[in-house]
Structures are given as C-alpha cells and as structure tokens.
Amino acid sequence: MQVHSASGVNLNDEDDKVVWKLENSGKFTTRSMYRCITFSGVVDVRMMEIWKSKVPLKVQIFLWMAWHDRIQTAQQLRKRNWNGSKVSKYCGKEETVDHLLFQCPIAMVTWCWVRDNLGWSKSPTSIKTFQENCLGTAGGSRNNMLWWIIASVGWALRKTRNDLVFSNVIVKSPKQVVYKSLGFLKQWTKLSKDWSRMEGVLLKLKEGLSSW
Ligand SMILES: [Zn+2]
Question: How far is the CA of 166 from the centre of ligand 1 (A)?
Fold first, then answer.
C-alpha cells in the first residue's frame, strides 16, 4: 500500500521503500530537501536537527512525517478513506501519532525503560512533551542523542505495529519492542559522529535491561 503525502515523500509501508518526489528524477538531493524544509525562507530548526542526525534517511523521513502528523496511523489512513479500523490493534484506543509513539501501552513500557535507565524524571507522553521536556535548545549537543533515541524507539514501534496490521504478527511481550529499539540503536551508533557518547548511552540502556 502506498500513501501519498503532501510532503512530497512516499513511504511504502510494506518494504519501507522511500521515493523522493521533489525532484523530477525521483533522486534525492540536499537542495530539494532544503527547499522542502524551508518555508518562505524560514528554516525549521528542529527539522534541521533531524536531517543532521545520523540515522538512515527513511527513518529521518519517518520522524519528519511524525512531527508533521503525517505518518500512516489508523487516523491518517481514515482521512484518506481507508476502510480499516481507526483504533490501535493493541489496545483498542484511537490510533493517532501520539498514541502510536507514546501512549499505547507497549510504547509507554518502552519509554519507561528509557526513562529509568537514563535517569529521566518522567517519560515523554506526546510529541509536544518530548519537544518541551526532553529536547533542549535547538542545536544543543544532547539533542543529537535524543533524536537517535526517539528514532529507534519510534521505528521499533512502527515496525511492531505494521507487523501486526499487515502480517498479523503479535509481540509476546513489550520487552520485544525494547529489544528491537536496542537493535536499531546498536546499528546506528556507528554512524554517529558522537560515537563514544552514544556508546555510553547504549551501554546504560543495555545494562538496565537485565534488571528490568
Ligand atoms: Zn494502542
């Protein structure tokens, strides 16, 4: 299934193929991306942070779409006249972007693991609270690490949800989402300029898992 978004990007849900529509050639260029994230000459600084984070392009696009409320949640699919259910298949509540990424019970458990092992006082409960309580001043060095965390948790939740909706695969325990997130974190750590810091965070998250 392919859903066209107003952002000029198509995320093909079954194979995660990303097609860049901003250039006629379908090829991705920095120039076209820059055009896309500036509006009347004003740059969205948060979005610039996403593009600078060293996670795969398809994940950057996923975050960008989440931040603009355009990922394919049940709510979004309904807006496009999809006939499926508009509720989360995990808990029966309406599936919005915030629900998928923060409020569904499996998302909440995953964020508790992050919170407990990184010593946060509370878990984010929405994009807004992640923005306000977790991310610091735009461009701050800690933000890079935070984008990397939300990228992996979000990507793991998205994959878990798609496995259920499209392939009927149910996770046996929320810990499986945690393991998936860890897998992505590990994979992407090596891409980061901030390698040693990321490794420290990764270690804390891993260590915490045994007692959790
Ligand atoms: Zn749910």
Answer: 16
- Copy the structure tokens of residue 33: 């991306």
Which residues are within 5 Å of ligand 1 (an ion), measured at CB? 88, 90-91, 104
Residue 25 CA to ligand 1 center (angstroms) comes to: 39
Which pair of structure tokens corresponds to residue 194? Answer: 């901030």
How far apart, in whole angstroms, are the C-alpha atoms of residue 87 and residue 99?
10
- Rounded to whole angstroms, the Cα distance separating 59 from 75 reads 20
The one-character DSSP state at 2 is: E
- How far is ligand 1, taken at its centre, from the CA of residue 156, in Å? 14
Q: What is the 126 CA–ligand 1 centroid distance (Å)?
A: 13
- The predicted model scores a pTM of 0.79
Phi, psi of 7 (to 5 degrees): -75, -10
The model's pLDDT over 186-204, given as tens digits with 9 standing for 90+, comes to 999 887 777 888 889 999 9
Report the alpha-carbon distance of residue 133 to residue 32 in Å, rounded. Answer: 31
Both tokens assigned to 153: 């948790």
Say if residues 182 and 198 touch (Cβ distance below 8 Å): no
Q: What are phi and psi of 209, to 5 degrees?
A: -65, -35
